[in-house]
Structure formats: C-alpha cells, structure tokens
Amino acid sequence: MTEKAREGRKRRPNGNGTVYQRKDGRWVARAYVLMPNGTTARRDYYADTEKAANKALVAALSRLHQGIPAEATGWTIERFLLYWLDHVVLPARKPKTYQGYGVVVRVHLIPRLGRKKLHRLTAADVRTFLTQVRNTCLCCLHGVDRRRAEGDQRCCAVGKCCEQVPSPRLVQQVHAVLRNALQAAVREELIGRNVAKLVQVSTPTYEVNRGVGADEARKLREVAENDRFYALYVLALYLGLRRGELLGLRWEDIDLERGVLEVRRSLQRVGGRLQPVTPKTRTSRRTIPLLGICIDALRQQAERQDRDRELAGSEWADSGYVFTTTTGTPVEPDNLRRSWYPIREAAGLGPIRFHDLRHSCVTLLLDLGTAPHIVRDIVGHSDIDVTMTIYAHASLDEKRAAVRRLDERLR
After folding, report:
1. Is 44 exposed, middle or buried (0-12, 13-18, 19+ CB in 10 A)?
2. Side-chain-side CA neighbours of residue 401 (13 Å)
3. CB–CB of 33/40 below 8 Å?
4. Domain 77-198, what architecture?
5. 3-65 belongs to CATH 3.30.160
6. Under 8 Å between Cβ of 43 and 28
7. What is the rounded average pLDDT of the residues 2-7?
8. 0.70 exceeded by the pTM?
9. Is the pLDDT of residue 322 over 70?
C-alpha cells in the first residue's frame, strides 16, 4: 500500500480493530476478542483481499459485542476428548456409557484425529475419517501386536489383512461419540459449530424378533420349571424385565403380600467388576404388579435360595439379590447364557435370544388387546414408539387374517 493511500485512510476509533496489508501482500484484520475463559485477547485474521479482511473484522467485533467467545486455538482434539470424558461424561453418564465412549475415543478418534486442532476440524475431515474407519480391517484397527499376542496369525503378521471391516453399527457409534463430544465443545464455547452434525451416516437396519408365541411360552415355562433360574425366566416372559434389571433385583424390592415389584437398579460389569447402576432410562424405574405364577415362582426362588444358604454354610455371601450363585454372590450377566441355551434348545425355540423374551412380553400383551401405553409402562420403554416398533413386525398369519377381514368387508 502506498504512503498516499495510507494517509487517505481514516483511522479507526479505539476498540474497533484495524485492517492492514503485510509486505507479502496478505491482508490482516486485528481485533480484541472475548476468549473462552472470559478474558480478552488480540487476535489476527488473515485474508487474501482487503474486502475479506474487513468482513472478518466485522464478524469478530460482532461476536465480541454479543458476548460470544472466539474459538479456542490451543486445544487439540485429543486434549479435548480426554477432558470431555473425565469432566463431562463421567459425572453425568452411567459407568457403562463412560466405558464405551472411552473405547471409541482411544481406539478410533485419538489415533486419527487427536493431533488436529479442535477449531480447525472440518466436515470434510470428519467424512474422510469415517471412510477410513469404514474401510480399515479389524486386525489393523486393534493393532497387529495385540493380535499376535493372542496367537492370531491370520492377518498382517503374515503380510495379509483379515479383510473383516467394521460393521455399519460400529461406524454409527464412532460418529455418534464424535458428534456428542463436539456438541459439548460448542456448549463450552470452545468452537462455534459442530461439524460432525454436517456429516450424515446411514443408520443400520435392525431386525426386531417378536420372540415366542403363547404355545412356545408355555413350553418354555415347562422346560425351565426345574432350573435354578426358573423365576427369572418367568419374570422376563411375564413382565418384560431386562437381563440387568432381573439380576439387579433385591428382595427388598419385592412385596409378595401386596403383589408389587419395583425396578430400582440394573446389574452391570463395569471396569472389571459387577456393580449396580441406575436403570437405563427415567421410565425404566417403575413399579409392576405381581400376580399368579410370578408370585408362585418367586416364593419357590426364596425356598431354593434358603437351601443354597444351608448347603453353602459359612461360604454363603448374603448379597440380598433375588438371583445369585450357589454361594449367594451376584450372577455374572454373561454367565446367564449357560442356563439359557440348554433351555432354549430343549424347548425347541431355535436361535431366540434371552432378550427376545422381553419382546415376547410386549407382543403377547398387545395381542390380548392391552393398551400400548400400559404395555410401555410395564416393560419400561422410554417411548411408546419403541413398544410399537417391536409389535410392528407382524406374522404372516396376522397379515393373512387382516387381508381376509378386508376381503369380507369389500365382498
């Protein structure tokens, strides 16, 4: 810029910033801005033209006057993710959620995005990152050394990848964790917008199993009658309780005289140990009536537990749980499969999961004409849409009956 041009330019009032051209031809807009920690600091914005520099200056001053902090420039994505886990997720979310988020952060996000500046992350960066996750074989994702240590020689150890790519569900989870973290950064006023929201990820399709029918349910009850977890299967089938809710039941939660059961907690393995946690959602904490076979099954369970206590003697651990091991300790959730698989096979149910008993409860109650909102409250769904999604998978017989009724009406 010539000296004459400089002299002709009006001086800006104090506090309104300045725009000038450097010797290399680039333009600079300089202004004091509000920082995320509440202080003010001078920041330079670079542009190729004077017009662009003036535009940047106006935007910076506008944010200042509105009390909106400038984006933090000292945070890397790794630094923020670790801060987010310990100061945002840990105090507010369930231990299992914190553990799951931590795995995604350390296995997926930090290795590929950790060194990048938080405020410089773009939607294109996120899209490229998700493509890399989607196309990386599982052996490379978890590290060759770890696979070798476990005796797995299928992949890179012999110069060839296993070609087992992550599932769409995993890609969706990685994107969701990044999106939630960046939204927290927006709330902390470290960045101006959440670029992960600009990237769409296809939602995986899930096949919801309606579970067992009435005849199969009766058969299941007969087969399980002599099993030590008979009452557990009855409550899962009749009341739709989740596995963790069943294993987290204490005798103090049950009043057999009044016929009432209260769901107060769920039993989960977190951080290498079993521990009770609050129910999955706000509506998961609920009071359910006990009738008929449920009361009978629980009384049988109390008698069975008394026999176990006598046999265990001094080794008995009085944990207070309704369903325990033979020594009174809580039941490992994954170990429930050892009981469920033989019963499933004996009843001829095929590849039905234990969780499908919960779906069976929903379907059977709705088939009896129970109002959907009552079913929702019994099984503890967060939304009535979840209840109806399970029921929406109608059987061929139900479809045939519906078409027959329409045929009779129109005939």
Report:
1. exposed
2. 5
3. yes
4. Orthogonal Bundle (1.10)
5. yes
6. no
7. 46
8. no
9. yes
